[in-house]
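Researcher: Here's my situation. A collaborator sent me these components and asked whether they could plausibly form a single complex. I don't have experimental data yet, so a predicted model of the whole assembly would be a useful starting point for our discussion.
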Amino acid sequence: MMEGSVLVIGAGIGGIQSALDLTELGFKVYLVDRTPSIGGRMAQLDKTFPTNDCSLCILAPKMVEVFRNPNIELMTYHEVQKLAGKPGDFTVTVLKKPRYVDEIKCKGCGDCAAKCPKIEVPNLFDMNLGKRKSVYIPFPQAVPPVYLIDPELCLKLTKGVCGVCAKVCQAEAIDFDQKPQEIELKVGAIVVATGFDMPAKNLSSRWGYHYENVVSALEYERILCASGPFGGHVLRPSDQKEPEKIAFIQCAGSRDLHEGVPYCSSVCCMYTAKEAIITKEHSDNSQCFVFRHDIRAFGKNFYEFTQRAQKEYGVKYFQTKISKIVEDPETNDLIIHYEDLKTGTFHDFQANLVVLATPLVPSTGSKDLAKILEIELDEYHFFKEKDYFNKSKSTKDGIYLCGFCQGPMDIPETVADASGVAGQVAAFLNSVKFDHIKEKLEVPELDIKATDEPRIGVLICHCGINIGKYVHVPLLAEYVRTLPNVVQCEDNLYSCSSDSQTRIKELIKDHKLNRFIVASCTPRTHEALFQETCQEAGLNKYLFEMVNIRDQCSCVHMDDAEAATQKAKDLIRMSVAKSRLLKPLKEELLKITPTSLIIGGGIGGMSAALNIAEQGFKTFLVEKESFLGGNLNYLNVLYPIEENASDFLNETIEKVNHNKNIQIFLNAKIGDIKGYVGNYIVSIVDSKNETHELSIGTIIVATGGKEYKPKDMFQYKKENKNVITQLELEQKLKEKGKSWLDDINRITTILCVNARQVEGITYCSNICCGNSIKNIGLLKKLKPELEIAVLYRDLQMAKKKYEEYYRERRKDAIFLRYDLDNIPIISKVNKDPEKYNIKFYDTNLQDFIEFNTDLIVLSTPMIPADNLEELAKMLKVPLDRNGFFLEAHVKLRPLDFATDGIFLCGCAQWPKNIQDTISQANGAAGRASRFLSAKEIKTSGIVAEVDPVNCIGCGKCESVCPYNAIDILESAKDYEEVSLIVRKSFVNSALCKGCGTCAATCPNGAISIMQYDFDQITAMIESYLLEL
Amino acid sequence: MPKAKTKVIRKDFTPEILVFCCNWCSYAGADLAGVSRFQYPPNMRIIRVMCSGRVDPAFVIKALKEGADGILITGCHIGDCHYISGNEYAQERFGRLHEIIIKQLGINEKRVRLEWVSASEGKRFADLITEFTNQIKELGPLKVL
């Protein structure tokens, strides 16, 4: 027996994304987090690199989505205790910790905390820099928006006195008698997404963390955050003064064999550049200094970001080793003792504030959880993956890993992982899909015509005393009753309670209402609830409107009840004016063809195809070459596992060839793509030049990348046989045995050849350092007496096990550092046998070095595959400025295109190693199969609509639409004697997201955006200003 | 049909300000100002749209015509737009709108502003409204067009 439900442990961005994808793939999800809110670490961040997107702005909508999802059971403040059963049929026991607040009754109004006697303790969400009461909500946007009581602090629970919260809570939600409760869950699979901790306290004292003005980077995120402890002012903790000189210390305890962790935490270089930039944006007077080791900026647009920090924002980077940080007791400034690695000299640096990039470690409790789940940990207590090629499978079947708990990674990698896990769970539990999914009961809709007289009902909420105390609600209700078309108006204590939902339904029925308005809090969290209630009463959900008289009236005009009440009157009147013009909107059902097309038969494409095929969907795999496997065909041995690439490749090709759901087209190309999500018609031209027309639901782009050939650079010429690229070396190692090395005694590898430049290829292509280091080891194995030199700029060895891998190889070669100002000069000194002279400035030794070498290996960046422009045009998706495909959102939608139904993975998006390519491939497969599983999707009613009479076919709307939802179509129209070609704009409601940019752009007012149309907004404006 | 407005002559000038908020960032910023109890003057009313890119210049002209003393269009910071690039179009369009308002209608350009507010900038939202309201108070009532 398999169970069609899944337990997700940890509700950070990884757990959230997994849960959302899993429900769409047909599974019920129990989302457990030991903290009182979902959101995890990402909720604590101020902004995200490399775009400086506001972290909460992009995360909060997902949190609300989880909260509103009927197939996710949110279990915050719960902990996993026991596991029994077997893969596919687990029984999990979780402990529900007492909140002492009934989460169904609590409306999150905050009256309790306001009245709680002032015993304030450090707030963990603000990294102990802010304060909270003993009854508290972790942060204002917490989900669920429910308070809890700290039992160690609460006077009632510790001493039996007080209890004032219970007295002021009008919802009667306080419950001091709550006890811990064990709950048993039946699940088919488990996803572990427990994230990381940043325990700065364990650091060696030389980092100075015990001083007040030395903070960890996560604490600094809170300091930067507008909703943080200092309201977004950059202040230092000791005297709350603005620091002028801020020092950012990299690798404070990372890459450290003696006192910290040996690995690289992988994200610090980037968040430091981000924090420095934001600091400069906050205060022009501040000076930011980064004490760095390598700059590890290997992701998409990362290196350029660190360059911008230096060039545009004047952030100063020093390549240093820190010996000690001490405090000047007079000023509370910090003195940093360091060695400047560029000059080899020792210095002291005085800073007002020090930010430490401390190691990120698996979150506390990982060991216990591993024991409970009986899965293995690696030597650093990250959860261990079953095999290198699938990092999201734990050592036990049916238990999957997602995000930082498996190894250091950033947000987009975590998100890709999360979708990949969802895809794999879907394949594993394919037979029990949709077993536990709640189908919504469809209530027949009332027939409301545009000509019907509007009959509006209004419900005004007191929100306990949150609105009622500052807005005169009875007067407000009296006023609203006088407004034309308002048939019924009531006020109540909590509009969101379940008895209120019943009341709303009664009102709609009893008074034959055809519009409904709730005046309470924010539609961002509550609109969906009321819309659902309306639907249950048969009222089209687009006939509902919400007015926010809490956050916009009572909360912000607390000492002016008259003005707050007047404002509430105006806002409701405006809403009534709009409401009169609302139309019932239709959500179209869109059938989805349950097939997928995968473009590119490399390891990414094959992995994606396998996952989708294992979920039971027909998959077409198109490859331009005559063989599958892409770049993997040219690789020799894979690092850090040291396995033959061909073994894994052959095994995968075998699987693909034997899967009945996969149809392969070799030597084939895409001829044409028409249609939209769920309904693509794709023509494929095969090797015999025959065209196949396929009906396709979703498309995955997995076109890979290729090595840059450094023509005429560093003596790379046809006649120079011993100047080769890294990939050419790879092939020699693979095919030629060792005899070719007979005459070669000294080899020099040059990294960053035409990468990380000021112009041209400005990016770091991520994989070259590791690949070069791997080949050093292989060369030494073949011929131990070889002398190998590596000329590098920064070594990008940030992934799990990479740092150690690099450390081991250090004995095989000498590593010499150069920089962009002094690029190595190579001259040929002998023709046969070939010999080359290398001259460059070694920035570590501070001197020019010159030596001869027999073989030069050039590590060049990966560049996009050929002819992507043509494909991008056909798919109507964008490329970035480096020619890779551009995803919908660099942080939270790394595998989606903005256009629904098209996804990407692997090196088509950005150069990456095999492990990450497979993780992304599984992720893209998971994302793509959501549509296939759903069979049909509902489009939103809030879409653009074109009035063809007024449309002049100018195409402005088409050019501003980010979703390719608008097409300008030509048709012939006959006017008496002449036939004219007429151009008109057409909106595809399946792709439209309802932003309304087209409507505002249309020069002729021909586009309406439903629910926000011209007349409705104009009515609101008139209603406000003309008191209509 | 809209009636001509009888403007109440008050002793203190209480401006009428219209604020357009996008659903994803600036409206959330306004929500956070509320949740955090940041106080600001009560002279403005918010109209929520999905994206700042939705704000038709005609709405602004209409509001000025009907007697709004100041108009604030707010959206996600550039790069943060939920709809990828809607705010960029809003910005572009706003540039042209300003030209019209300043040059053709002779309205003080300070009365119509475009500002970015993120979901975590509750304080900034409150400060912005305070500052804008004070500015409009200083400018005095807009003479109806």
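Model: Some features of this prediction you could bring to your collaborator: DSSP finds four helices and four strands in chain B. Helices of chain B lie at 26-35, 57-65, 86-105, 122-139.
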